[in-house]
């Protein structure tokens, strides 16, 4: 498909509205993405035509719903290049996926074992590991961050020991947009026999991950950040690890046989999918992934790079601006502040002008502590944004600066 920005924008109904009397400029894509019409239609179609519980009934609709759900799993398997479809688990999002894995490790780890996360993590890739360490007596170690927002790879290699059992890092930072050298991180971890979980929540909107090429042991992401419904997500896990980990939740669908003496678990992926899942969401997530592939990840990457370059160029002209996360390889996320001005004040003023950005710590307080700031203003661009919208943000920021200085 040729990249036609006008056509793409016409497919996102929410973008064509006014906020506070101004055209909406939505630059909070790292928090959640907007949904194309095909996704909205698929959600409606599911409830109009397909709705039934899956796997349980022999009746027609149950079969249709089950088939659609399992087809979506296979679609996602292909999208991330997983070896087997049963290695692709439906979850409610990144947070759930990480908790599932960390909870399992909490039961496997022993005192003396070590878990490594990075300074650049979202809270949802820190707190579950703290739980796991508290529960097991394992030690949590942290890969330090450098001034430009990159991770210190030399320090990382020194942290790895034969006691390291799992390394959990993000593919792309949500707070700074920095792309991490995950392939290198995975390779080094495997050399000491540690597993690796990659938090792909910020990567999947911009690129197509290849889990076999990365050779990661777990890869997690959220549906709502890639044009899919809220409350959807994927946990990819290598077969050997999913077999090793204990189940997370008990209930229907995840068992083979239940007696009061002993329960045996269902095979993968059902072992980790207790209860009635978000059936509509799982099916529609497949539709969202189809849509992104139709737009094309090469097109998305090239266009977003243009927006990033243009945004950096225009923002750099503003007085007193300070950027956070200045590595060469970045996703279309710009984190910044103005000297002496609180990010919340800027965010509140530009919201009055129709500009939606995120202000705050972005669920990554250790990063803010490192830079000794209360938070940042974060503008995150998607492939349906435009340079004209960046211009509108720049004008709004100038007004905010004038009012706040
Ligand atoms: C958004 C995000 C999360 C949390 O995702 P949820 O959808 O809220 O579960 C975790 N890590 C990163 C890097 C994120 O961007």
TrEMBL record:
Gene3D superfamilies: Aspartate Aminotransferase, domain 1, Type I PLP-dependent aspartate aminotransferase-like (Major domain). It is an enzyme of class 2 (transferase). InterPro entries: Aminotrans_V_dom (IPR000192), Aminotrans_V_PyrdxlP_BS (IPR020578), Cys_dSase_SufS (IPR010970), PyrdxlP-dep_Trfase (IPR015424), PyrdxlP-dep_Trfase_major (IPR015421), PyrdxlP-dep_Trfase_small (IPR015422). It catalyses: (sulfur carrier)-H + L-cysteine = (sulfur carrier)-SH + L-alanine. Keywords: Lyase, Pyridoxal phosphate, Transferase. Its cofactor is pyridoxal 5'-phosphate. PROSITE patterns: AA_TRANSFER_CLASS_5. Residues 25-392 form the Aminotransferase class V domain. The keyword Transferase applies. Its EC number is 2.8.1.7. One of its GO terms (biological process) is cysteine metabolic process. GO terms for molecular function: cysteine desulfurase activity; lyase activity; pyridoxal phosphate binding. Catalyzes the removal of elemental sulfur and selenium atoms from L-cysteine, L-cystine, L-selenocysteine, and L-selenocystine to produce L-alanine. Belongs to the class-V pyridoxal-phosphate-dependent aminotransferase family. Csd subfamily. This is Cysteine desulfurase.
